[in-house]
Each structure stands twice: as structure tokens, then as C-alpha cells.
Amino acid sequence: MIIRRDVFQAIADPTRRQIISRIAAEAMNLNAVAEAFDISRQAVSNHIKILTECGLVTIRRQGRERFCEAKLDQLTEVTDWVAESKKLWTGRFTALDNFLTEIQAKPTTDGTK
């Protein structure tokens, strides 16, 4: 069974977000990335693998070393989704606010507002 990983899955984990932040500033070799975290090198490798599968990280070989580079173009999928969700919820909250204002303005059965 093949698991399709997406950008949302990648950024859901705080360690992966930290890895992205670190290598977005500069490409780092795998050992440098692993040393920055208080988890096993295998765990860091697994996080890097997920980030690579999602297209957020590429591995570049330079001699005997492998360097991680951030490819943040994939994050546009997230920003697009956030923008659409914000538009949707802003509209819903505006409609709710209008509805509540309308209800509050109507007189009750005893003649008060």
C-alpha cells in the first residue's frame, strides 16, 4: 500500500516545522540537522523522508555528504487553503453577526426590545 503524503501532513508535526525553519535559512547536511534536535538520528531521518515525499525538502549530494534544502513552493497549497477557509468563515461570521443584530432589533411579544 502506497501512502500519499501531502504538505498538510508534513507541517502537522512540530519537529518537521522546526526542520523546515532551520533549513529554509540555509542548506544543512543531515548530521547538522540531526544534531539540532533531541531525538534520534533515525527519527530525524524519518521526518526528512516525509518532508522529501511532500516536496518540501530535497536532498543534494555534495561529495560524501547529503544536504537538505527547503523547497517552500509547496506551501502555497497551505496558504491557498487558509485564504479560502478565512473567506468562508468570515462570510459565515458576518452573516451570523447580521442575524444576531436583526434579532436584537426586533421587539419582543411584550413590546420591549
UniProtKB/TrEMBL annotation:
<protein>
    <submittedName>
        <fullName>ArsR family transcriptional regulator</fullName>
    </submittedName>
</protein>
<dbReference type="Pfam" id="PF12840">
    <property type="entry name" value="HTH_20"/>
</dbReference>
<feature type="domain" description="HTH arsR-type">
    <location>
        <begin position="1"/>
        <end position="90"/>
    </location>
</feature>
<dbReference type="InterPro" id="IPR036390">
    <property type="entry name" value="WH_DNA-bd_sf"/>
</dbReference>
<dbReference type="InterPro" id="IPR011991">
    <property type="entry name" value="ArsR-like_HTH"/>
</dbReference>
<dbReference type="InterPro" id="IPR036388">
    <property type="entry name" value="WH-like_DNA-bd_sf"/>
</dbReference>
<dbReference type="InterPro" id="IPR001845">
    <property type="entry name" value="HTH_ArsR_DNA-bd_dom"/>
</dbReference>
<dbReference type="GO" id="GO:0003700">
    <property type="term" value="F:DNA-binding transcription factor activity"/>
</dbReference>
